[in-house]
């Protein structure tokens, strides 16, 4: 089964990115045969910025994304969303790729389930 998780909210301020990545990492843990992909758009592109520092005991989106990547999840983000936020030329977490709407629509067509946050 192919599952696509689309995240729209930033890494902190709401818990949407956190809950989305909790689902992604649980799917990877309990259903290793599933092909799980993540697409970051709108303010969620900020999830891909490295060197996030959070308070002790507070969730860290960078660590959650790295776990997902280590389990084979493909993570891509919207290039025009990055450009709109002045982030197009900054470093991203290793393994995350810049993408576009054309590639997102192909992922949507190719997958069995789409979950949005």
Describe the protein.
This protein has one domain: Hypothetical Protein Ychn, Chain: A, CATH 3.40.1260.10. It is globular. The mean pLDDT is 97. It is built from 4 helices and 5 strands. Helix 1 runs parallel beside helix 2. With 117 residues, the protein is an alpha/beta fold. 35% of the residues lie in helices and 21% in strands. It has a 5-stranded parallel beta sheet with strand order 4-3-2-1-5, with helices on both faces.
| Strands side by side in the biggest sheet | 4-3-2-1-5
- Helix count, DSSP H or I runs of 4 or more residues: 4
- Note the overall shape: globular
N-to-C series of helices and strands = EHEHEHEHE
The CATH architecture can be named as 3-Layer(aba) Sandwich
Which blocks of ≥5 consecutive residues have pLDDT under 50?
A: none
Q: Measured on Cα atoms, how large is the radius of gyration?
A: 13 Å
């Amino acid at each position: 089964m192919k599952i696509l998780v689309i995240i729209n909210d930033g890494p902190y301020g709401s818990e949407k990115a956190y809950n989305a990545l909790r689902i992604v990492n649980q799917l990877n843990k309990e259903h290793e045969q599933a092909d799980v992909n993540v697409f970051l758009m709108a303010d969620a592109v900020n999830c891909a910025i490295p060197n996030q520092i959070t308070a002790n005991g507070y969730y860290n989106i960078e660590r959650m994304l790295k776990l997902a990547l280590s389990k084979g999840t493909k993570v891509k983000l919207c290039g025009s969303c990055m450009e709109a936020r002045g982030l197009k030329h900054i470093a991203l977490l290793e393994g995350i790729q810049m993408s576009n709407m054309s590639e997102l629509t192909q992922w949507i067509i190719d997958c069995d389930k789409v979950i949005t946050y």
